[in-house]
Design goal:
The chain is α/β, with parallel strands linked by helices. The protein is built from 12 helices and 13 strands. About 45% of the residues are buried.
């Protein structure tokens, strides 16, 4: 506790329930890369993630979409595949695939984001194949996904199934537990146990409480119980999005609300269903995009302040097999100081490097 700010040290804060088992997993840092271009319009290179020795474990790429013409669903064709607004064979994004190959040669995993969110510009097809669609529709969509994973040699997928409740109804956007299990089972059968399957969700959704976000028909606790051995990790929004843009550099005392959110994290890993090493805390990498969609991906937290809270968590909870951090997102990442002086503008890899070093400092000796 000696390194914690006075305002945190004074608090009787966290629910304590130390576990006897020593940590056995190295905390990982993963980064989303959906905005493929920098503000200049140039593609953002992923190569510094390796060249600058950031220690990054995985890149969650883009938002992949699938479009299925009616005539193809009726036959044996496959859907067209898109990375954001680009067809995956578009020469304008060829450099991305070259960068991916470069990362993978250095053992950085690259996984495809399959988003179910309305603000991800997904179509009805993108959602319904994780639900109760008929076999021919599923086969058409899965054929496209399989072809993408094989041709681009991707290491896994990230399913982002939390969608606003008002967008989930009987006609469109319905995601079901059975549909998700069908997809997971098929991927495991075709790609084996080394294939990464990650899931993005809020802590409330995983715990089955609240929520403005929902995955209609999906009980995550039941999913983990039934297919947890095939799910690599969860990117979990712990910190409330109402803090986006609210005093991002910590001039006000954030302790009460942040500690409440850390208690939510502790609730999650005490749940008997989930394991701490599979829970990555999702946060934003920059305060500069307040008001966009980042609230759904994870609130912005200054790294210096975040380190203090992780130290508080470790001190209060005892040995902890902490899973790591998922950052949204790469192209806009920066590493501001507590005083608000920006570091790393135009050098987004610095956020990943500093985050990895911070985790190694807080959770040493793995």
């Amino acid at each position: 506790m000696e390194h914690l700010p006075d305002r945190l040290r004074k608090l009787q804060v966290l629910e304590q329930n130390p576990r006897e088992a020593l940590p056995s997993h190295q905390p990982k840092v993963v980064i989303y890369h959906q905005s493929l271009h920098a503000k200049s319009g140039m593609l953002t290179s992923l190569r510094p993630l390796v060249r600058e020795k950031t220690g990054i474990a995985a890149v969650i790429l883009g938002n992949f979409r699938f479009q299925t013409p009616v005539q193809q669903v009726a036959g044996n064709g496959s859907a067209a595949t898109y990375l954001n607004e680009y067809a995956t064979d578009d020469p304008n994004i060829e450099e991305i695939w070259i960068d991916i190959d470069y990362l993978q040669k250095e053992d950085v995993k690259v996984i495809a984001l399959l988003g179910m969110r309305g603000n991800d510009n997904v179509s009805d097809d993108d959602r319904k194949w994780l639900g109760s669609c008929d076999d021919s529709t599923f086969e058409c969509l899965y054929k496209a996904l399989h072809g993408l994973l094989v041709s681009r040699r991707l290491d896994g997928i990230n399913l982002d199934m939390d969608v606003p409740g008002n967008e989930v109804n009987a006609e469109r956007g319905r995601v079901s537990l059975q549909g998700v299990i069908r997809l997971i089972d098929r991927l495991h059968a075709d790609f084996g146990s080394d294939f990464i399957i990650a899931i993005t969700a809020s802590a409330e959704t995983l715990l089955g409480i609240n929520t403005h976000q929902q995955s209609d028909g999906v009980d995550y606790r039941m999913l983990e119980l039934q297919r947890g051995n095939l799910i690599s990790w969860y990117n979990v929004r712990i910190f409330g999005r109402y803090r986006l843009g609210d005093d991002p550099y910590g001039t006000r005392d954030p302790a009460p609300t942040f500690v409440r959110d850390l208690n939510l994290y502790i609730r999650l890993i005490q749940h008997d269903v989930y394991r701490a090493h599979k829970i990555l805390i999702a946060i934003s990498t920059t305060p500069n995009t307040v008001g966009e969609t980042l609230g759904d991906r994870g609130a912005y937290i200054n790294l210096d302040l975040f380190q203090s809270f992780l130290e508080l968590l470790r001190w209060s909870y005892g040995p902890l097999d902490f899973g790591g951090v998922a950052g949204w997102e790469y192209s806009q990442a920066s590493a501001p100081t507590t005083a608000g002086n920006s570091r790393g503008i135009g050098r987004p890899w610095e956020w990943m490097k500093e985050t990895k070093e911070m985790l190694e400092s807080v959770f040493p000796g793995r």
